[in-house]
Amino acid sequence: MSNETELKESNIYINWLENSITNEYYTYYKYSEFTNLNPIGCGAYGKVIRANWKNTDKLFALKIFNNDKTTLKEVVNENF
Ligand SMILES: Nc1ncnc2c1ncn2[C@@H]1O[C@H](COP(=O)(O)OP(=O)(O)OP(=O)(O)O)[C@@H](O)[C@H]1O
Fold it and tell me: Does the keyword section mention ATP-binding (predicted)?
């Protein structure tokens, strides 16, 4: 597959994710609202970090995905 085709396909997944956030299918949290970030794991698609939200006791597991087409495709397919 050519680089141009790869890029076009990646953009389809990125647009899908951005539209899902715009349409509020997902709750959007700003990364800067998280504190006490601690790495807790690693999966096939990236790292997982435990964090508090807005200095509360509320704990989140944040997934940081690798920025490549295969990962984006898997993330979109898992959430579709
Ligand atoms: N909600 C969570 N609470 C606590 N730990 C978590 C949570 N989500 C992920 N982890 C930790 O991060 C690791 C990686 O999680 P992730 O979901 O990315 O991968 P996985 O499902 O274990 O494997 P794969 O990436 O192959 O699907 C887990 O094995 C676990 O140790």
Answer: yes
